[in-house]
Amino acid sequence: MPDATSHNDVIILGGGLAGLSAAHVLARAGRRVRVLEAGAGAGGLARTIVHGEFRFDLGGHRFLTPDRRIEDFVRGLLGDELLTVRRASRIFLRRHHFDYPLQPLNALFGVGIAASFAILLNYAKARAMTRLRRTPLLSLEDWVVAHFGRSLYEICFRDYSEKVWGIPCQRIASEWIAQRIQGLSLGTAIRQAFSRARNASPPTLTDEFLYPRLGIGRIAEKLQEGLGQDNAVLTNARVTAIRHRERRVASVRVRQGDRVHEFHGGEFVSTIPLPQLAQLLQPSAPREVREAAARLRYRDLVIVAVMLNRARATDLTWIYFPEKSVPFGRVHEPTNWSPHMAPPGKTLLIAEHFCCRGDDIWGARDEELTATTAAHLERLGLMRRNELLESRVLRIPAAYPLFEIGYRGHCETVLSHLDAFPNLHVAGRGGMFRYYNMDRAIESGIAAAESILRREPRQRSAERPAKVRRRA
Ligand SMILES: Cc1cc2nc3c(=O)[nH]c(=O)nc-3n(C[C@H](O)[C@H](O)[C@H](O)COP(=O)(O)OP(=O)(O)OC[C@H]3O[C@@H](n4cnc5c(N)ncnc54)[C@H](O)[C@@H]3O)c2cc1C
Where do the domains of the chain lie, and which CATH numbers do they carry? Predict the structure, then answer.
């Protein structure tokens, strides 16, 4: 640990992929950086847990990007460590497996003739209503009903979305679903199926992805390794205050165990959750900014990993469980992503329980969570009780920014206030309150670094360059 007060060129708050990518680019350009990470290790949401001979991500993380530059960046870090993995995911619903991402035709045939007829009728009705009314599609429910009809919404979308977000679909903003299934509707899906125009699929629906042989955490490890001796990632180092004067951030206060340190810097990149950043400012942000920040919420996650004495449980990448009778929302088997994730002859299943800090799932004892998860996996035919070797439970705060209707305004209020600090750059998924996948998180970190590098020192006080967030 450095002296009680130390000066660094650039201070980076948060050691996930966004923070580490910013650090990587800055260090390569000869800037001195220090990354402050609250957790015991770097990597944030994209880290890989090593449990004896088993390895697993915090929910399987596939790497996929339409951006050639970001793909080259990751390939440059990992080289031949990267495997190309074929995606095969299913939704388990009404005791049937359906394709994931949802193939509406597969759903139509799977639900039976009467339900299929209702789906098509409802879809036609929804399209007619949408054309007539032309009201904005504000909520997830509005958006899905307009694009797929009410029956398909109720069968395929409602329960899973409510499980993920923990609030009714009428309160979830439509942007999230519109972004996830860009341009798709029941009509286009039917047309695509008949014309076999499958190569028109948006990138998140593609069939292959990249994955490091030893888990997604290798990206963060490689980024960290490349930082060089003058730069450091400080772990177990929680930022507890951000001090500013005369419209510039001057230093951050960091708690590490029972010690407190002050780090001064010229430039600051924040990838910690946006509302936290706003609350940590000293002197405090105006009341309306703090109130807006308090309204921005995240969805949290509990991961239950069960290590099994069997060679394989499924041949799938992910299985989605929309129904409320199953307590987790998604399961993956890391050995289908890379055979190096478990010792020979053994496998593991990772169940994702979506929750909120402080609720019953978050607060349940590890043994209870393991027992419930194992019982449901057994009921679903994915394991047998006598195969269970070990388990591990992890609680992940701020896993998903919660896009509740109205969030955009609160976000803008906070970000506009932060614009007043020209040497403070925000990046990353939680940092910008965006539904970013890894590629966008990396890209935003690189953009923050490049924005800092573009500045001439003499420009810093005279002129305010465009803030990074406007580019992302
Ligand atoms: C279950 C799940 C599955 C996913 N699957 C995929 C996938 O398949 N493909 C894909 O591309 N993306 C996936 N993602 C998204 C991906 O994880 C993120 O886009 C990416 O990891 C975000 O990186 P980040 O650096 O922006 O944020 P984070 O990883 O959240 O990093 C922020 C860091 O800040 C630290 N921090 C917070 N507060 C403080 C503080 N006060 N002081 C110091 N440090 C602090 C945190 O500990 C954390 O390490 C998934 C996400 C989840 C939750």
Answer: 5-46+215-294+405-470 (3.50.50.60), 104-195 (no CATH), 298-401 (3.90.660.20)
